[in-house]
Amino acid sequence: MSELDLPVVDFAPDRWGNPASATGLPDSLQATLDTLGIRPLGPPVAPDDAVLDAPAVPAPVRESLARVVGSGHVSDEAIDRLRHTRGWSTPDILKMRAGDTSDAPDLVVRPADQDEVVEVLRVCAEAAVAVVPYSGGTSVVGGLAPDRTGFDGVVALDLGRLDGLVSVDPVSRTATLLPGTRGPRAEELLQAEGFTLGHFPQSYEGASIGGYAAARSAGQSSAGYGRFDEMVVGLVLATPRGTLELGTAPRSAAGPDLRQLVLGSEGTLGVITSVTVRVRPMPTVRVYEGWQFPSFEAGATALRRLAQDGPLPTVLRLSDEVETTLNLADPASAGAGSAGCLAITGYEGASAEVDARRAAASAVLEDCGGIALGEEPGEKWRSGRFHGPYLRDPLLDAGAFVETLETVTFWSNLPRLKEAVTEAVQAALLAHDLPSLVMCHISHVYETGASLYFTVACAQSEDALARWGSAKAAANAAIRAAGASISHHHGVGRDHRETYAEEIGPLGVDLVRAVKTTLDPAGILNPGVLVTR
Amino acid sequence: MSELDLPVVDFAPDRWGNPASATGLPDSLQATLDTLGIRPLGPPVAPDDAVLDAPAVPAPVRESLARVVGSGHVSDEAIDRLRHTRGWSTPDILKMRAGDTSDAPDLVVRPADQDEVVEVLRVCAEAAVAVVPYSGGTSVVGGLAPDRTGFDGVVALDLGRLDGLVSVDPVSRTATLLPGTRGPRAEELLQAEGFTLGHFPQSYEGASIGGYAAARSAGQSSAGYGRFDEMVVGLVLATPRGTLELGTAPRSAAGPDLRQLVLGSEGTLGVITSVTVRVRPMPTVRVYEGWQFPSFEAGATALRRLAQDGPLPTVLRLSDEVETTLNLADPASAGAGSAGCLAITGYEGASAEVDARRAAASAVLEDCGGIALGEEPGEKWRSGRFHGPYLRDPLLDAGAFVETLETVTFWSNLPRLKEAVTEAVQAALLAHDLPSLVMCHISHVYETGASLYFTVACAQSEDALARWGSAKAAANAAIRAAGASISHHHGVGRDHRETYAEEIGPLGVDLVRAVKTTLDPAGILNPGVLVTR
Q: Is the reported ipTM for this assembly greater than 0.90?
């Protein structure tokens, strides 16, 4: 463990991210909303006014849990329960704003270590109490809303006390981290040893190591540092049947790679209590810059050429025309974007290596019609990159609706997929008389394909949840019809469960269920997430 | 399908590889054997003289199978059964030379397509006949020797007719290949389209696409092209319960990566009937060269630096002192190697890129004490790289014993692992009064670790199998004790089954069994391979 002692952020139950970073609505966006006649709806229910059911976990079970973790680490305080209710998706936030506390856990239990986790699972399995492993709490796909039918209550298993850097192997460049370590703390601990994880998802401030692994997170520097699942070399999983330790080598031919079952398991198979990851030395140089492309197609070709023939920048993104114009990613200048399609490239590493890579990549970008915009737009993106989502709260307050969704496919299928999803979402919202803006970017590239990340904006309405539900269903269907994957990095949760089942087919679902039943025979772990019960 | 029609090689049941490439024993090696007093044992049983049990599959089942695939594609000919008996390990070859046909399949069945595979599995599951999926037949870990207890016979399901290139997506750079396509044919078909797989395992001439995937093959150019499991983006698996299609995108967060269950499943979960892989454009330039290092430690440091900080050559290998001296890899000059530790670097790609990468890698190699030996040793390695194993047959004829084994671990553990395995094998053989030579190389590197590949040579004895069995058990135990993986690219088969069970633990074994039972409830697929029944 480290001696660093970072302040713990108390995230609000009804807002995105760190309250200290909350932002107002820029005038430019307010003007747009005014033009469109979008006005605030009634005021939201404040968390203090939200009404919770009495905790359902039977008293003897609660006492057993208190014996395991100490009574100070079992809580049924309202604010604690609310903070562990659902995640950070727009529907999650809207439900909380509507005072809907139906998914609240009955208890929040905070084990101190692996042994206590195993013991909590034993107690809950015996008592038929459902357990939701909770580390960052940033799911945007309903991954924290279990199906409680048939259970004697729901425990949020908060892993915040399993926090820290266990060890670093500087020769092998691996580090073992505890699951409750949030992104900034993991970086701080690693950087004190001269290393970086290089993992910066948009939920960075809240998300944690265990969640990165459980949900196959991808960060904004994935071109350079890879996805989180590609960084993982070892895992420890506490299950109701005991502990599973996986990962004896970087790669192996010793049977199926069981690590790949735990990655993406979203708390349904066990509780990840330790993650060993590949780390990299801290870069000495960082350069970010902007490029303008005449069209999304030209920009996508440039990204594909870099992904296939190299060299790869550390960060590589491309916004389409709508996203470039609106520039929602930067609260400071939202609504006042530029023309064409904006690409961001970032390079991190040692000085000479960065220079060479940047020169070679720039030649490819220019060859594809890119015009260099210099470092200003790059730095603006870098410094503002975690701020974009904070715009959602003032937008919701102002009567707008904003949500995102994402997918991934092979390069040749990318244009068709982009068009199909955009059309499906817009048509579904228009059927409710809601004109919408759908903007899109590529932010993760592979040799054979890339992700597409969509942001959808329209007027909020009293039944926003239902209307968005139909748009989301249309998007899911379009993604499936195009043969793409239902998620590149958000995961399955409950929101993507049905499309996921179609994606892997009935035999695939049987496999996931068989694996779950093997490790969690009582089915207490995050029931209803990933696959139906 | 392609119109190319490559000649089909008839591999011998008791020899390595293509009979046309058979080699004699170089004088230098014969002299060494003479010095050591190693003399030929009695002559081996010729395949024509081997005695087979009558085929056990009941006549009605055989008739059903003939109805599925056509009677011309069901064979119980002796030579056919012998060619499908076991694989290419030294124990496998010695058993065949001893006339031990106990693992021979009863029938060889050759389906034409996916539908016929599914139907054969249905017939065999109903009749309790075991099925061994057979494509290249090059297993060196007992992957083709099922446990037939309780079954009404064993069918070798030869996938030779599922051969060819189904499609290429030049934009996404993916290709779909059929499982029976052997290495050289896959390359020929892809190269006709301007692409290469870049996968060259030592068994290249015999191994096939389905086997590459089923056993997580790694090729000699893994530094540049990656392991085979890293190339796979899609798979179709025919199982007794129907077909499982996996792979909607390069990477996804849609749950556990089920492709990673099929990869490494070694024919125990189903029959891989189609593999979609990432391909690369054919390189225009190829340069191979040799480097001399004063010690294995210095050379390993150089390899680690290239793997961690780049740039990576396409081929990167390092032999230890013993292997460098003996130079068994090249029959033309075997026994007459050089001093120090020989490293081979190879670069493939476009001309300017290769030049830049070679210059930067050479600087690292020099900085670690490497002395450039020029292109001659590199070209010698490249042209002779598939010939080394052909030395085994004349060595066995001359009374010597040679076998290989391999493992993988993290960099910081590499020296300890190399020492532990070497000592364990030598001590075990010495307990049988067999002094041995143990040589080692690194041939696959990762950021966090590398593989170790050992070649063991000693005198053959009448009970060579038992003696090697105890040495192999000692090696397995040493690998496990060192916390390394029991296989980097050979797989588990039956030979590594017990150590694999220790590596993944009882819960891990339960998981593998649960997955198998889900797809293959009757347990007919390669029974006894990977995990005990």
A: yes
